[in-house]
Amino acid sequence: MPFGIEKVLYRGAKRYQMTSKKGHNYYKGTGSGAMGRHTSRGGYIIDLRKVRTYVVPDLSNCEYKPYVTPEAKRGIKFSLNTNEYLNILRRELYPTETIYDTVKTGERSRKRFNPPNEEANQQEEVTAEEQSRLF
Protein backbone atom coordinates (compact mmCIF):
# COMPACT_ATOMS: atom_id res chain seq x y z
CA MET A 1 0.00 0.00 0.00
CA PRO A 2 2.73 2.55 -0.67
CA PHE A 3 0.50 4.33 -3.22
CA GLY A 4 -1.91 5.53 -0.54
CA ILE A 5 0.89 7.36 1.32
CA GLU A 6 2.19 8.95 -1.86
CA LYS A 7 -1.30 10.14 -2.68
CA VAL A 8 -1.64 11.84 0.72
CA LEU A 9 1.78 13.49 0.41
CA TYR A 10 0.98 14.76 -3.07
CA ARG A 11 -2.32 16.26 -1.93
CA GLY A 12 -0.58 18.24 0.84
CA ALA A 13 2.20 19.41 -1.45
CA LYS A 14 -0.09 21.18 -3.93
CA ARG A 15 0.45 24.89 -4.34
CA TYR A 16 -2.53 27.11 -4.98
CA GLN A 17 -2.86 30.75 -5.88
CA MET A 18 -2.48 32.97 -2.81
CA THR A 19 -5.70 34.92 -2.42
CA SER A 20 -7.49 36.40 0.54
CA LYS A 21 -10.61 34.40 -0.36
CA LYS A 22 -9.45 31.23 1.35
CA GLY A 23 -11.30 29.71 4.27
CA HIS A 24 -11.54 30.82 7.88
CA ASN A 25 -8.26 29.12 8.78
CA TYR A 26 -6.09 30.94 6.25
CA TYR A 27 -4.70 34.46 6.68
CA LYS A 28 -2.80 35.93 3.79
CA GLY A 29 -1.95 39.32 5.24
CA THR A 30 -0.81 42.34 3.29
CA GLY A 31 2.93 42.04 3.70
CA SER A 32 3.11 45.03 5.98
CA GLY A 33 4.57 44.66 9.42
CA ALA A 34 3.59 46.34 12.64
CA MET A 35 5.12 49.77 13.24
CA GLY A 36 4.82 49.55 17.00
CA ARG A 37 3.01 47.77 19.81
CA HIS A 38 -0.29 47.94 21.67
CA THR A 39 -0.35 49.17 25.24
CA SER A 40 -2.33 47.62 28.07
CA ARG A 41 -4.73 50.58 28.10
CA GLY A 42 -5.67 50.34 24.43
CA GLY A 43 -3.16 52.78 23.01
CA TYR A 44 -0.49 52.22 20.42
CA ILE A 45 3.18 53.13 20.68
CA ILE A 46 5.05 53.63 17.41
CA ASP A 47 8.56 52.23 17.37
CA LEU A 48 10.63 54.50 15.11
CA ARG A 49 13.03 51.65 14.36
CA LYS A 50 10.17 49.77 12.67
CA VAL A 51 8.79 52.69 10.64
CA ARG A 52 9.65 52.44 6.96
CA THR A 53 11.66 55.36 5.66
CA TYR A 54 12.30 55.95 1.99
CA VAL A 55 15.52 57.62 0.88
CA VAL A 56 15.01 59.90 -2.11
CA PRO A 57 18.05 59.97 -4.40
CA ASP A 58 19.68 63.23 -5.45
CA LEU A 59 17.94 64.24 -8.67
CA SER A 60 19.89 67.42 -9.40
CA ASN A 61 21.97 65.77 -12.16
CA CYS A 62 19.19 63.53 -13.47
CA GLU A 63 18.63 63.60 -17.23
CA TYR A 64 14.94 62.74 -16.89
CA LYS A 65 12.46 65.60 -16.69
CA PRO A 66 9.25 65.78 -14.63
CA TYR A 67 5.86 65.55 -16.27
CA VAL A 68 4.97 69.06 -15.10
CA THR A 69 7.52 71.81 -14.90
CA PRO A 70 7.96 73.49 -11.51
CA GLU A 71 7.52 76.86 -13.23
CA ALA A 72 3.95 76.00 -14.29
CA LYS A 73 1.42 78.59 -13.22
CA ARG A 74 -1.14 77.36 -10.74
CA GLY A 75 -4.80 78.08 -10.26
CA ILE A 76 -7.67 79.10 -12.46
CA LYS A 77 -7.69 82.78 -13.37
CA PHE A 78 -11.15 82.99 -14.90
CA SER A 79 -14.48 81.24 -14.84
CA LEU A 80 -16.84 80.45 -17.68
CA ASN A 81 -20.58 80.35 -17.51
CA THR A 82 -22.48 77.72 -19.43
CA ASN A 83 -23.24 79.86 -22.48
CA GLU A 84 -19.61 80.95 -22.95
CA TYR A 85 -18.39 77.38 -22.56
CA LEU A 86 -20.86 76.02 -25.11
CA ASN A 87 -20.01 78.78 -27.59
CA ILE A 88 -16.29 78.02 -27.32
CA LEU A 89 -17.04 74.32 -27.66
CA ARG A 90 -19.14 74.92 -30.78
CA ARG A 91 -16.41 77.00 -32.41
CA GLU A 92 -13.79 74.35 -31.71
CA LEU A 93 -15.75 71.22 -32.55
CA TYR A 94 -18.34 72.26 -35.12
CA PRO A 95 -17.17 75.29 -37.11
CA THR A 96 -19.30 74.45 -40.19
CA GLU A 97 -21.43 71.49 -39.09
CA THR A 98 -25.17 71.43 -38.48
CA ILE A 99 -25.80 71.78 -34.76
CA TYR A 100 -28.68 72.13 -32.34
CA ASP A 101 -28.85 75.60 -30.86
CA THR A 102 -30.37 75.12 -27.42
CA VAL A 103 -28.60 77.92 -25.59
CA LYS A 104 -29.93 81.01 -27.38
CA THR A 105 -33.45 79.90 -28.33
CA GLY A 106 -34.20 77.40 -25.59
CA GLU A 107 -35.60 74.97 -28.14
CA ARG A 108 -33.99 72.36 -30.32
CA SER A 109 -33.96 73.93 -33.76
CA ARG A 110 -31.61 72.80 -36.51
CA LYS A 111 -29.31 75.65 -37.43
CA ARG A 112 -26.21 76.00 -39.54
CA PHE A 113 -23.35 77.65 -37.65
CA ASN A 114 -21.41 79.79 -40.17
CA PRO A 115 -20.40 83.11 -38.64
CA PRO A 116 -19.61 86.04 -40.96
CA ASN A 117 -15.98 87.05 -41.39
CA GLU A 118 -16.15 90.00 -38.96
CA GLU A 119 -17.67 87.89 -36.22
CA ALA A 120 -15.15 85.14 -36.92
CA ASN A 121 -12.27 87.61 -36.47
CA GLN A 122 -13.78 88.90 -33.24
CA GLN A 123 -14.32 85.35 -32.02
CA GLU A 124 -10.68 84.52 -32.78
CA GLU A 125 -9.59 87.57 -30.78
CA VAL A 126 -11.79 86.51 -27.88
CA THR A 127 -10.29 83.03 -27.89
CA ALA A 128 -6.79 84.53 -27.98
CA GLU A 129 -7.68 86.72 -24.98
CA GLU A 130 -9.12 83.73 -23.18
CA GLN A 131 -5.97 81.76 -23.91
CA SER A 132 -3.81 84.60 -22.59
CA ARG A 133 -5.88 84.60 -19.39
CA LEU A 134 -5.23 80.89 -19.04
CA PHE A 135 -1.47 81.25 -19.13
Write up this protein.
By secondary structure, the protein is of the alpha+beta class. It has a domain of 53 residues. The chain has three helices and four strands; from the N terminus they run H-E-E-H-E-E-H. It has a two-stranded antiparallel sheet with strand order 1-2. The mean pLDDT is 69.
Give the integer mean of the pLDDT values.
69
* Gap from first CA to last CA: 83 Å
Number of distinct beta strands:
4
Assign a percent range to the helix content. Answer: 25-40%
Please give the radius of gyration in angstroms: 33 Å
**Number of helices, counting only DSSP H or I runs of 4 residues or more:** 3
Secondary structure category? alpha+beta
List the helices and strands and how they pair.
Elements: H1 2-12, E1 36-38, E2 44-46, H2 82-93, E3 98-101, E4 109-112, H3 117-134
Antiparallel strand pairs: 1-2, 3-4
What's this, in brief?
The protein is an alpha+beta fold and 135 residues long.
